[in-house]
């Protein structure tokens, strides 16, 4: 496979870091983008990739950073929309409207803005690129107290289909990876092995384990690659069978 320019948002940690590492291992030129400047610097150095500080909800910043990447490396050929907000939760009766607005602004509008701006540049450069959004099976299977986040991911799935049907004429494929709970460092701290909360999640999963970040990264690399050349508009569950229950 030829070397491509890959941009991974939210790439400074967790799933994004694993995704960046996987594309790097595949021989691609990777740029990570994240709001956390110190973590961007640390991760870029550790993985041997480029790093950009970026707030995906800021259209001017998106345009500025994409212009800088294109000037150095050419147009982005693979966009991974991984950046998102997971930490704000609340029940339907308790979640503040302002909190829901924050969730949607980051997870939906941010993904839209990144897709829009990258796609415009792909089309302008004649690049038949790919976009992979990181969604969640929560968009299809509700968990009490997580409805704000899950509603945003249902919207990401809809955005994936919207972008796929409109960009197909330009040869641009758009798909999503929809994990169940993923064993990031943060989740492992909050739900250590053997804890009742961890066991409760594992008991919902037919394969009886949480996804590793590398499971999500492998699915992302697949959807962005030649092996998925005739796949667009899909949201691929990486959930150990949880949607079956």
Automatic annotation (TrEMBL):
Gene3D superfamilies: NAD(P)-binding Rossmann-like Domain (3.40.50.720). Transmembrane segments: none annotated. InterPro entries: KR_dom (IPR057326), NAD(P)-bd_dom_sf (IPR036291), SDR_fam (IPR002347). Residues 4-180 form the Ketoreductase domain. Belongs to the short-chain dehydrogenases/reductases (SDR) family. This is SDR family oxidoreductase.
């Amino acid at each position: 496979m030829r070397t491509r320019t890959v941009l991974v948002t939210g790439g400074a940690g967790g799933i994004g870091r694993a995704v960046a590492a996987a594309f790097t291992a595949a021989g691609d030129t990777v740029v990570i983008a994240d709001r956390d400047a110190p973590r961007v610097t640390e991760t870029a150095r550790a993985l041997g990739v480029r790093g950009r500080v970026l707030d995906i909800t800021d259209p001017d910043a998106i345009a500025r950073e994409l212009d800088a990447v294109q000037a150095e490396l050419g147009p982005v050929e693979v966009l991974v929309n991984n950046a998102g907000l997971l930490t704000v939760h609340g029940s339907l009766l308790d979640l503040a409207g302002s909190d829901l607005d924050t969730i949607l602004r980051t997870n939906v509008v941010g993904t839209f803005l990144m897709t829009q701006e990258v796609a415009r540049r792909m089309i302008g450069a004649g690049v038949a690129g790919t976009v992979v959004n990181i969604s969640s099976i929560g968009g299809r299977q509700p968990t009490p107290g997580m409805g704000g986040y899950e509603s945003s991911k249902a919207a990401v799935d809809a955005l994936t289909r919207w972008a796929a049907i409109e960009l197909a004429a330009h040869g641009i494929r758009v798909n999503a990876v929809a994990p169940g709970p993923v064993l990031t460092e943060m989740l492992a701290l909050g739900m250590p092995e053997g804890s009742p909360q961890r066991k409760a999640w594992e008991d919902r999963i037919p394969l009886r384990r949480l996804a590793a970040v590398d499971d999500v990264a492998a699915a992302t690399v697949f959807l962005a690659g030649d092996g998925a050349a005739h796949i667009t508009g899909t949201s691929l569950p990486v959930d150990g069978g949880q949607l079956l229950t």
